[in-house]
Amino acid sequence: MNLLFSNDRLGEYPPSLYAATRDPLPAFPEQRGEARADVVVVGAGYTGLSAALHLAEAGRDVMVLEAHRVGFGASGRNGGQLGSGQRLEVDELERMAGVEAALRLWDMAEEAKRLTRDLAARANVPVLDGIAHAFRKPAELDHARGLIERLARDYGYDRIEALERDAFRALVPSDAYVAGELDHGAGHLNPLNLVIGMARLADAAGANIRELSHVHHIRHGRRAGEKTVVQTGKGRVICDHVILAGNGYLGNLDTHVAARVMPINNFIVATEPLGARAAQVLTQPIGVHDTKFVVNYWRLDPEGRLIFGGGENVSYRFPADIAAKVRKPLLQIYPGLADVKLTYAWGGTLAITMNRMPCFARPAPNCLSASGYSGHGLALANLAGKLMAQAIEGQGDGFDSMAALPSPAFPGGAALRWPMLVAGMGWYSLRDRLGF
Ligand SMILES: Cc1cc2nc3c(=O)[nH]c(=O)nc-3n(C[C@H](O)[C@H](O)[C@H](O)COP(=O)(O)OP(=O)(O)OC[C@H]3O[C@@H](n4cnc5c(N)ncnc54)[C@H](O)[C@@H]3O)c2cc1C
């Protein structure tokens, strides 16, 4: 079983709102026969296309090999929330890596947001400002106040506002929450149009993008000057460097990465346009996510449809009725929407790590990999692609400083992590044991 092929049709986008309303992008050719490139990138999501764009702009001969279509993976299916910071809060980062590293990681995350906003502007994709965090308990507001103060004092970030019950409900009219905060420096956007726009930019800069080109084997060059051979179904590419950008869909193409990065599925629905009822959901054009472990996240699109994400599973298969799975948390937050039609329902596969920090690695001498953004990849994946391009160009130490962070393997490693979870122990008990 391979997540690349288990829930979707070959070369087709999922039945999402994004796919149904996407900007046009002509198909790129399939890779056939033998070709050469300086760099091969496996996967055409944000990570891969950001790497390809930066490499092509630096004058490198780069080829992107995508098993399906540009943006087929999480990049074309996600909640579109461009959050601040890393997936871990700064206190946790300080405990994990020290104060200096935490400061650097915060700055990198800010750079990731700026880069993504810049790519969105170049791709003509609007970014709307404001992401609210919805709290279920008063203690969460106390915790947030402390963090807001620390971020302003020690990290130079003063764009988050704490919101008491009434102020929060004026923004998010739901009885499910007691307070919240609003990050004015975060934002939201159409994720598939961003990745489509990035493909256009990379193509215009000279990158060779290949669709329907599944990479099933890589023979790495091990000694100086030895080439790497990347094998697809109908062709192969001989190159100096390879970048792995398959994230949750990479499977066991590389066992070092597979042991550290675990795929997990997450689900979204979109309603019919809500008209005047949109104000019962949000009174401002912001995005929202809450503090549940299986996080709920939502926003309105320009036509007033509610795009709501909630629910996950760890399985090769999505549930048969995704809409029913997501409707449950949606109605807990907005019971008044019980009669609203869910017009689209889709799933996607992201990737998590044991410590919820991305896994940057050099699995072989001429191979770079970045993945496992743990639900925070919209900005970070774009930065990861740029850092890998810079590492190949011999510029900066951003990639190596990320690769120096601890990246522990999951129990069971590459061979066992999934069978163990899917068959026996279960995701939820593992989560409790690991303290996720
Ligand atoms: C439902 C959902 C909601 C999310 N919401 C948010 C959010 O609101 N905010 C946020 O920051 N993050 C969110 N994320 C996470 C975010 O989407 C990802 O972190 C990010 O898109 C990862 O980008 P990527 O390019 O690394 O991977 P992907 O976009 O998954 O791209 C990987 C690509 O590699 C290709 N591929 C894999 N293996 C091969 C192979 N062997 N040969 C050829 N091609 C291959 C795949 O087909 C795929 O197109 C969400 C994810 C999901 C699934």
TrEMBL record:
> Keyword set for this entry?
Oxidoreductase
What range(s) does the FAD dependent oxidoreductase domain occupy?
A: 38-390
Annotated Gene Ontology MF terms?
oxidoreductase activity
Which cellular components does GO assign to this protein? cytoplasm
Superkingdom, taxonomy of origin: Bacteria
Q: Which residues form the signal peptide?
A: none
Q: Which PANTHER family match?
A: FAD DEPENDENT OXIDOREDUCTASE DOMAIN-CONTAINING PROTEIN (PTHR13847:SF281), SARCOSINE DEHYDROGENASE-RELATED (PTHR13847)
Q: What is this protein called?
A: Gamma-glutamylputrescine oxidase
Identify the species of origin: Paracoccus thiocyanatus
